[in-house]
């Protein structure tokens, strides 16, 4: 059955991501223009450096990565010129047919959340990506405006559930059988069930679960395989997770995982062919 089309003529994000992963494999390349990386690429730590860095990564990984994940903070640190560089990257990626996930980790009371939703997911917004990362710290339901705008526009969200940093455990693991992480997973599962495609794992409400979380998924009783949407897994490479360990960590949910790696791939630059080769090696490992 053909997927319903949303405004902008696009199919739902979950279906588009599943198709890209089916075609290319489960790799998302993070674009994190850290000052040290810009310097090692011989680029200036300014908006022009960001533009050249972003354009090189986009050209290098097109046809290898299923998605790109620009880290919004590293564009924001350059003010309005940095945001303009991000807008241009998002437009260029769209043109090149690459899915984008804006790693903005937004979350606020509902009335303010509506503005974030318009900015990152709204039709015609210059900052609209295919999906955005969200923080549920103000309560999962506070994210409702973003969930609704994403459903209306065929875009998606990735909600932080178990983050890759060690400090995350002090909040996310708390609560025993009803841990914070488990509540987030259950809320995302319920949300995906409201829309089509969840039985195939093609829901548009994804979760962020770090590749570094080890046995926490099993220990906290998280049923990620039945979640109905994609799992964005940062932590591969620079934060120590390996592709082999990820298979063990995610077990039955591994087919839902979109692994994301930034510094480990980006440090191969500035040569576009080297960045591409590094992304290809990472993808090969994920395919096993
Ligand atoms: O739990 C999380 C959520 C997001 N991130 C982001 O992913 C990249 C990771 O970069 P690497 O260079 O591959 O370590 C970065 O933008 C983080 O902000 C995360 O690491 N963990």
TrEMBL record:
<dbReference type="InterPro" id="IPR011060">
    <property type="entry name" value="RibuloseP-bd_barrel"/>
</dbReference>
<dbReference type="InterPro" id="IPR011995">
    <property type="entry name" value="OMPdecase_type-2"/>
</dbReference>
<dbReference type="InterPro" id="IPR001754">
    <property type="entry name" value="OMPdeCOase_dom"/>
</dbReference>
<feature type="active site" description="Proton donor">
    <location>
        <position position="105"/>
    </location>
</feature>
<comment type="similarity">
    <text>Belongs to the OMP decarboxylase family. Type 2 subfamily.</text>
</comment>
<keyword id="KW-0665">Pyrimidine biosynthesis</keyword>
<feature type="domain" description="Orotidine 5'-phosphate decarboxylase">
    <location>
        <begin position="26"/>
        <end position="278"/>
    </location>
</feature>
<comment type="pathway">
    <text>Pyrimidine metabolism; UMP biosynthesis via de novo pathway; UMP from orotate: step 2/2.</text>
</comment>
<dbReference type="InterPro" id="IPR013785">
    <property type="entry name" value="Aldolase_TIM"/>
</dbReference>
<dbReference type="GO" id="GO:0004590">
    <property type="term" value="F:orotidine-5'-phosphate decarboxylase activity"/>
</dbReference>
<protein>
    <recommendedName>
        <fullName>Orotidine 5'-phosphate decarboxylase</fullName>
        <ecNumber>4.1.1.23</ecNumber>
    </recommendedName>
</protein>
<keyword id="KW-0210">Decarboxylase</keyword>
<dbReference type="Pfam" id="PF00215">
    <property type="entry name" value="OMPdecase"/>
</dbReference>
<dbReference type="InterPro" id="IPR018089">
    <property type="entry name" value="OMPdecase_AS"/>
</dbReference>
<keyword id="KW-0456">Lyase</keyword>
């Amino acid at each position: 059955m053909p997927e319903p089309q949303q405004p902008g003529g696009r199919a739902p994000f979950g279906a588009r991501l599943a198709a890209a992963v089916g075609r290319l494999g489960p790799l998302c390349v993070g674009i994190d223009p850290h000052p040290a990386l810009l310097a090692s690429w011989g680029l200036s730590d300014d908006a022009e450096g960001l533009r050249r860095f972003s354009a090189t990564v986009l050209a290098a990984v097109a046809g290898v990565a299923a998605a790109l994940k620009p880290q919004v903070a590293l564009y924001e640190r350059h003010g309005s010129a940095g945001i303009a560089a991000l807008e241009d990257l998002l437009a260029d990626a769209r043109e090149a047919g690459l899915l984008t996930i804006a790693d903005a980790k937004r979350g606020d009371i509902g009335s303010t959340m509506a503005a974030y939703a318009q900015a990152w997911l709204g039709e015609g917004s210059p900052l609209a990506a295919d999906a955005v990362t969200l923080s549920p710290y103000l309560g999962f339901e506070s994210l409702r405006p973003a969930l609704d705008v994403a459903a209306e526009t065929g875009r998606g969200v990735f909600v932080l559930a178990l983050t890759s940093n060690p400090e995350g455990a002090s909040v996310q693991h708390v609560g025993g059988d009803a841990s914070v992480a488990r509540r987030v997973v259950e809320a995302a599962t319920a949300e995906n069930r409201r829309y089509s495609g969840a039985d195939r794992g093609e829901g548009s409400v994804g979760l962020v679960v770090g590749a570094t979380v080890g046995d926490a998924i099993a220990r906290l009783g998280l049923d990620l395989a039945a979640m109905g949407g994609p799992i964005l897994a940062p932590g591969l490479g620079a934060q120590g997770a390996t592709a082999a360990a990820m298979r063990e960590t995610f077990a039955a949910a591994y087919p839902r995982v979109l692994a994301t790696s930034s510094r480990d791939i980006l440090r191969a630059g500035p040569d576009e062919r080297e960045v591409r080769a590094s992304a290809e090696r990472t993808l090969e490992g994920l395919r096993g």
